[in-house]
DNA sequence: CTGGGGAAGGGGCCC
DNA sequence: TGGGCCCCTTCCCCA
């Protein structure tokens, strides 16, 4: 993570001298007025308009090819390094940059983006509970299953342009998200002009890239999505969108999921999702309109939304079917719909399936990073807080993670447990051995 | 320039 | 739920 460049926020959080133990559970709350700015400023696609104060991830989003954004956009996440990212794919893409700044200064401010071409007026009331279009895990996890719900569920934002157009244009805005229509804080309406692209969806396209962290973080970082209406409501804003930015959101890999799906899972997922498009609306949407606040404002998205929900149903069905014969709670009777891996609890299935779907419900309040699990977020936040509870007894060097300390200890011990099976050369880390073998023995 | 190595970040799994 | 652990990757430094 470009440690040498972490001279901004990261380095500023240096452990006070004399403190041997860090308190890690501090919520890392840097106010910065975000509580209000959230409702007034929307920056979709944070390519270069970040607050310099957030230096930690800043450089990452400035074309350096952050792991996160790069993954999302290029879909190379999880790829072995043999398949190095093509420079052309890592090049700045014609991403739709929606830098929406408050004009009127009111909650219902007219927001204006930075450039002024091809205006596109969109009236939308937004409630985004997660950049991954999280549905309510409290609901997803419910049902016939006894296992507690996961802290973040997601549907896969796979949409097809043509279908999206059909369902989001014109009179569709009132029906954009019927699931949240009852709740003024969670409706998501998109008013489209003729010929205009469905901005609302494009907005969500960028949401999938993490731009809604600021809305979702207050929810997801707590692992509680029931706090509906807090922070994340953006009151009726008129968005003027310009630029020739390609407002496309098809099933392209670069927009599929979070980009952290592994291998061909996205292709696989895409295929799967395209298979059953006739699923009925999931029941939980009716139970709680808020839970679907992240649903895309079109029928296709709804279908896809349902399909992922159905994946949970599927897990539940498997729980009922397969698991009905077993009374052993430890038995892995819940299976991933993608890889068929077994788990003892549907919640675990759901969490695991984020590997395939790229769902990352947990957002850092200080940067654009998102995580599939709460602990990932918590661990990440030490980047901002500078918490380094683990110190090397040999050199007093401190680390934020124990495994890093463990790795560091090899420096002192000279341990090189990884030996080349061909030449016997030893390495301290497996990666060196792998590289060595690749270069010298054509293996790996 | 190359390769080894240190540090640090995220992903994922297991307990 | 969280910690431990491992893996992978990236950045950086240095010989």
TrEMBL record:
Q: Which organism is it from?
A: Salvelinus namaycush
Q: Which Gene3D superfamilies match?
A: Classic Zinc Finger
Family to which this protein belongs: Belongs to the krueppel C2H2-type zinc-finger protein family.
Tell me which SUPFAM superfamilies the record gives: beta-beta-alpha zinc fingers
> Is Zinc found in the keyword set?
yes
- Disordered: annotated span: 1-28, 47-94
Keywords (alphabetical) are:
DNA-binding, Metal-binding, Nucleus, Repeat, Transcription, Transcription regulation, Zinc, Zinc-finger
Q: Where is the composition biased (Basic and acidic residues)?
A: 51-65
Q: Which PANTHER family does this chain map to?
A: GASTRULA ZINC FINGER PROTEIN XLCGF49.1-LIKE-RELATED, PR DOMAIN ZINC FINGER PROTEIN
Alphabetized PROSITE patterns for the sequence: ZINC_FINGER_C2H2_1, ZINC_FINGER_C2H2_2
> According to its UniProt record, where is this protein located?
Nucleus
What are the GO MF terms of this UniProt record? sequence-specific DNA binding; zinc ion binding
Keyword Zinc-finger in record: yes
C2H2-type domain residues: 334-361, 362-389, 390-417, 418-444
Q: Name one GO biological process term.
A: positive regulation of DNA-templated transcription
What is the protein name given in its UniProt record? Zinc finger protein 879-like
């Amino acid at each position: 993570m470009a440690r040498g460049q972490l001279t901004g926020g990261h380095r500023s959080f240096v452990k006070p001298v004399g403190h041997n133990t860090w308190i890690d559970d501090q919520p890392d709350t840097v106010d910065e007025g975000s509580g209000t700015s959230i409702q007034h400023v929307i920056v979709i696609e944070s390519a270069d308009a970040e607050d310099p104060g957030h230096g930690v991830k800043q450089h990452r989003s400035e074309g350096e090819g952050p792991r996160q954004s790069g993954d999302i956009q290029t879909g190379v996440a999880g790829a072995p390094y043999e398949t190095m990212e093509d420079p052309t794919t890592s090049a700045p893409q014609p991403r739709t940059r929606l830098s929406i700044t408050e004009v009127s200064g009111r909650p219902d401010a007219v927001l204006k983006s930075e450039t002024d071409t091809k205006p596109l007026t969109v009236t939308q009331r937004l409630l985004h509970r997660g950049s991954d279009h999280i549905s309510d895990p409290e609901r997803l996890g419910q049902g016939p299953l006894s296992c507690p719900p996961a802290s973040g569920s997601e549907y896969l934002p796979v949409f097809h342009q043509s279908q999206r157009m059909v369902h989001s244009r014109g009179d569709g805005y009132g029906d954009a998200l019927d699931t949240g229509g009852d709740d003024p804080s969670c409706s998501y309406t998109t008013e489209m002009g003729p010929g205009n692209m469905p901005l609302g969806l494009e907005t969500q396209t960028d949401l999938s890239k993490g731009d809604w962290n600021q809305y979702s973080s207050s929810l997801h970082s707590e692992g509680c999505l029931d706090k509906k209406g807090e922070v994340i409501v953006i009151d009726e804003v008129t968005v003027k969108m310009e630029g020739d930015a390609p407002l496309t959101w098809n099933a392209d890999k670069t927009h599929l999921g979070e980009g952290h799906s592994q291998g061909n899972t996205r292709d696989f997922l895409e295929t799967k999702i395209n298979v059953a498009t006739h699923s009925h609306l999931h029941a939980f949407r009716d139970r709680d309109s808020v839970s679907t606040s992240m649903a895309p404002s079109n029928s296709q998205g709804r279908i896809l939304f349902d399909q992922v929900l159905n994946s949970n149903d599927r897990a539940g069905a498997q729980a009922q079917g397969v698991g009905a014969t077993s009374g052993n709670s430890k038995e892995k009777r819940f299976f991933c719909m993608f890889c068929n891996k077994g788990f003892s609890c549907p919640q675990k299935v759901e969490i695991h399936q984020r590997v395939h779907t790229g769902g990352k419900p947990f957002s850092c309040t200080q940067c654009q990073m998102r995580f599939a699990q709460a602990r990932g977020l918590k661990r990440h936040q030490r980047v901002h807080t500078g918490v380094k509870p683990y110190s090397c007894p040999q050199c007093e060097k401190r680390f934020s993670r124990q495994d890093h300390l463990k790795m560091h200890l090899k420096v002192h011990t000279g341990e090189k447990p990884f030996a080349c099976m061909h030449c016997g050369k030893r390495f301290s880390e497996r990666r060196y051995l792998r590289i060595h073998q690749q270069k010298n023995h054509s293996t790996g």
